[in-house]
Amino acid sequence: MTVCGATTGLEPPLALLAELTHRCPLRCAYCSNPLALDPASRELDTAAWCRVLDEAADLGIIQVHFSGGEPTARKDLEALIAHATTAGLYANLITSAVLLDRARLERLRDAGLQHVQIGFQDTVPAKAELISGFPGGQPKKLEVARAVTDVGMALTVNAIVQRHNIDRVDDFIDMALELKAGRIEIANVQYYGWALKNRAALMPTREQLIRMDERVRARLPELKGRLVVDYVVPDYYAKRPKACMGGWGRKFLNVTPSGSVLPCHAAETIPGMAFDRVTERPLADIWANSAAFQRYRGTDWMPQPCRSCDQKEIDWGGCRCQALALTGSADNTDPVCDLSEHHALLGDIAATDGGTAEAPITYRSFSL
Amino acid sequence: MTDGVSEEDRVRLAPGVMLRQDRVRGHWQLLGPERVLILDEVALEVVRAVTTKPPATVGTAIAALAAQFDAPREEIAADVLELLGDMITKGFLTR
To answer: Under CATH, which number does the domain A15-244 receive?
Structure first.
């Protein structure tokens, strides 16, 4: 077994995305979970997750993001947060908030939870319900968001932006300020999983994006020192790809509800990938040696134009799942890059899907 | 809100922020929501000086740092104010 460190030049990972469950009361059209969801019967149990958390801390991971699905659907969330905290991990909770109340927030805080990120589908309740397929969500989210800061934890408003709410980006920022959030994520939908299925219903027009971008940039000066803004520009209108996950197998790892270890949460969409499981192999060994992590790690795998590009250790070739979804092969340069021979596809898709007047929404469905 | 930190201000760690030594890498860091700030030796001492309990004013912290490093107060004051302003902007500290 290769050990992380000076001998290999491989740095230890920084963050673990712990997808505790795929169960979720919401049915969001933009969900990034895979179309084939893990049933509850295949979820790792408490003891298995505790071992993963210990191994993660030993490996050098400093932050754990408890996510899903809806992680609060797990009754052992308090125990897992307490275990993570004892292991020295910083605990974040990524939640829809609809299953939470003040009493449980206090228990999660007492277990060591530092930060709660709540996803908001819109600022207008009826419009939020159109995207989430969940009636009554918005008032509940607002109530829980207030309780988060009230009991002394940090709050992030995650504004998930798509065609139906993109014109209200100012309202999202005002909502974050009103809720006393320390941070807002303005996250344009990334088109994987269910979101890819619903791309025609969600993709904004170029004009909408330009207006949003102007509004966000106009607000940034007044927000300095009050609200941290993490702003994800939508890929389909970009010229250079993102260093997806900070580069494949460089900073992050993701453990699925059933225990598969992925370099990114959409990696299961790539054909021919074999993923190791935390129940079968130690996390440090998987990080260093798993075929899935080796496959696109570093620059050796790169085709042209990446291979001879001076940006190759900045964007690491972009996103593998996007290359797959749009060009048919995950081995290609991310077509978001305007040096990619497939780049023109992006403009075509954005024009076609962004211009689709009323495409129907396929809600995430969870059949066990 | 005015830009910049003054010596009369008191600052504290923002909600959800903790000061911790990385047990694998060895360095000290501020951990916050979805982010990390690695502290060098000087930044660590500045954070410690302003997050005393009860919290000192920034001016008091600067005086303490001047004594600790045996450096002229005016030389370090500007650097400390700039560093704290940057940490507030990044959401690690709050007034």
So the answer is: 3.20.20.70
